[in-house]
Amino acid sequence: MEKIIKLNTVKDYNDFLGIDTPHPLVGVIDASKIKPLHHIRKSIGFYVIYLKDIKCADQIKYGRKFYDFQEETLVFAAPGQVIGNDDTGEPFQPKGWWLTFQPELLHGTPLSRHMQDYTFFSYAVNEALHLSKQERQTVIDCMMKIDDEIKGATDKHSNLIVVSAIELLLNYCIRFYDRQFITRKKENKDTLSSFEALLNDYFTSDKPSKFGTPTVAYCADQLHLSANYFGDLIKKETGSSAQEYILAKTMDTAKEWLADPDKSISDVAYALGYQYPQYFSKAFKRIVGCSPNEYRTLN
């Protein structure tokens, strides 16, 4: 059985690593300067951003798979997540820079109100951000600003400056992910094609009657992506959210089926996965601009 230890605070993590805690709510760690570690699964109560400088032996487990850190990779983890993998019995020397911060650090700041916008904290490890040399230096510069602030003399401005530096880093990460989505255009188009095929297969199977209309989580899982990464990818490629895309595809299928005079409106609704026909009619009118009956009459 997997052993999982709980590390609720930045100090808990620093104690686990055997390093000092200059600030109780935020820390910057030069991983090359800590002692060799043994692998262990960790349930964390804080945010972590890992910058790996080199391809190295320390892997992260996500689900039942292991992923190597590639050179200059940025990985994100959020409170409530479990990171790391089981002890192999062999110690390893980590490399790179790590930023840790607790949600309490952000309380009362504008950043606390839109942390959910940084969806990459819920990306899977295999959806990590791969950095150019210049991007890597930008990340390190941001971390060094935070480190200088928390290790210097504190005053009434310190917390705001630290939080602003974290927000700057996160906004850079949004920019870098946008670049990564663009440079992976072919892979993204392949995912979009697979998404379309998945929806086609879904509506020609008995899944709607068993499970209802397809969800973003279901589609992401079938395509082996995290829901947030999948949603962001579809938004970048189509301009629509994944949910909007699914709904549009559902209504396109409804239009085809409404052309069959032997199918009642209720038949179409149930076949699409709607539990109540009136919910289908309401959604159809909102998307198409007329009711199913009106559409059938016009066409």
From TrEMBL:
One protein family per Pfam: HTH_18
Domain of life: Bacteria
GO molecular function: DNA-binding transcription factor activity; sequence-specific DNA binding
Location of the HTH araC/xylS-type domain: 197-298
Alphabetic keyword roster: DNA-binding, Transcription, Transcription regulation
Keyword presence, Nucleotidyltransferase: no
Record protein name field: AraC family transcriptional regulator
